[in-house]
């Protein structure tokens, strides 16, 4: 079972941290990561999410300074803390806690980027036929020996207008049960469950103009594609000496959790918009001249329209409620103008009859 903790520190720094590309209260803006620009804090000066990912050391040839190590932390899904000692860049949780070398981030943007960190479980099952009469426990030990359960990382990826990365691992167990619809293990057969953990980080590309126009369906497509791709890639690498895979179930995916408390919605959270439009009274003047007589008629109309729109999003569900009050139009014509106008019509009628 995964345990997600939030490490909290009390900040004592009132001054700006001066290194780096920008200066923020107690932290600095690190720019130009694959996901945009984000604030990092010195050791002990900010809380941050703690995942189940243990330490990972990045290739030394890629990282040449502290800022480069901080960018790598942003680039890796599930990373909120890093350590750089001038030689090695180490990411995630179990890093040395050294002042001026260890920094953390909550993925607060300093360029208005929206970034999303998701976590979910995955699981699939494989039915193996054992060729040498091993017991289930003996075969599980062989699977564990030949297949590492270390974390695997995929970074600096793009799809449509999204940039993304993911971190995952699978562990191997003998399940208590299998999904319905699949055959029970026969003689010299065993079902093995592959239980996965999946961290996904995604954001809109810096140059994208589609922000907030994407639908939840497109985000769901990204999650579906990456998780299925991960399961397929992992299955292709499984080494099972002295056994044959007979059947593989579909990859199951658990509910999505927002690790950084940011869950995508196509609407703004808790947004209520009220729009009221009241038209300015309009006056139309009609002037008719017949011989020596000039008649002026004025008609005044007032239109008032009130529209109230309320939007309340629910995670992964968008509800839109719109209430529109009826539009009322009132046209008022003065009695005096009407009488003159009717008299004019009678006069014109008499003239046409005479002609």
Structure, briefly:
The protein is of the alpha+beta class and 355 residues long. The chain has helices at 66-75, 136-146, 216-237, 335-354; strands spanning 5-7, 22-24, 27-33, 36-42, 48-50, 56-58, 81-84, 89-91, 102-104, 115-130, 152-159, 162-173, 189-204, 243-248, 252-253, 257-258, 271-278, 282-290, 293-314, 317-324, 328-333. The protein contains 4 helices and 21 strands.
The strand order across the widest sheet is: 2-3-4-9-7-8-6
Q: What is the helical fraction, as a range of percent?
A: 10-25%
* Total E-strand runs: 21
Biggest β-sheet, characterized? 7 strands, antiparallel
Show unreliable segments: 1-22, 266-342, 350-355
The SS-based structural class is alpha+beta
Gap between N and C termini: 102 Å
Radius of gyration: 34 Å
**% residues in beta strands:** 35-45%
Alpha plus pi helix count = 4
> How do the SSEs run, as a string of H and E?
EEEEEEHEEEEHEEEHEEEEEEEEH
């Amino acid at each position: 079972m995964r345990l997600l903790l939030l490490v909290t520190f009390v900040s004592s720094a009132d001054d700006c941290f001066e290194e780096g590309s920008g200066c923020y209260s107690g932290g600095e803006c690190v720019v130009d990561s694959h996901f945009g620009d984000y604030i990092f804090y010195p050791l002990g000066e900010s809380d941050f999410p703690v995942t189940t990912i243990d330490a990972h050391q990045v290739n030394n040839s890629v990282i040449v300074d502290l800022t480069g190590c901080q960018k790598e932390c942003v680039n890796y899904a599930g990373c909120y803390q890093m350590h750089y000692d001038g030689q090695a860049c180490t990411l995630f949780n179990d890093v040395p806690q050294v002042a001026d070398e260890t920094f953390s981030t909550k993925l607060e943007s300093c360029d208005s980027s929206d970034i999303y960190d998701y976590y979910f479980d995955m699981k699939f099952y494989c039915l193996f036929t054992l060729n040498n009469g091993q017991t289930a426990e003996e075969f599980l030990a062989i699977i564990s020996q030949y297949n590492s359960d270390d974390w695997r990382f995929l970074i600096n990826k793009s799809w449509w207008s999204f940039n993304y990365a993911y971190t995952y691992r699978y562990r191997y167990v003998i399940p208590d049960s299998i999904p319905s619809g699949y055959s029970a293990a026969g003689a010299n057969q065993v079902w093995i469950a592959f239980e996965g953990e999946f961290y996904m980080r995604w954001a809109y590309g810096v140059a994208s103009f589609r922000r907030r126009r994407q639908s939840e369906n497109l985000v769901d497509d990204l999650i579906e594609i990456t998780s299925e791709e991960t399961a397929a890639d992992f299955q292709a690498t499984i080494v099972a000496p002295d056994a044959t895979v007979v059947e593989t179930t579909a990859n199951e995916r658990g509910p999505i959790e927002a690790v950084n408390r940011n869950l995508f919605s196509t609407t703004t959270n808790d947004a209520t918009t009220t729009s009221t439009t009241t038209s300015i009274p309009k006056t139309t003047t009609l002037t008719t001249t017949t011989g020596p007589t000039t008649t002026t008629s004025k008609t005044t109309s007032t239109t008032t329209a009130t529209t109230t729109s309320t939007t309340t999003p629910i995670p992964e569900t968008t509800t839109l409620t719109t209430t529109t009050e009826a539009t009322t139009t009132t046209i008022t014509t003065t009695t005096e103008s009407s009488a003159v106008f009717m008299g004019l019509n009678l006069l014109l009628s008499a003239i046409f009859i005479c002609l």
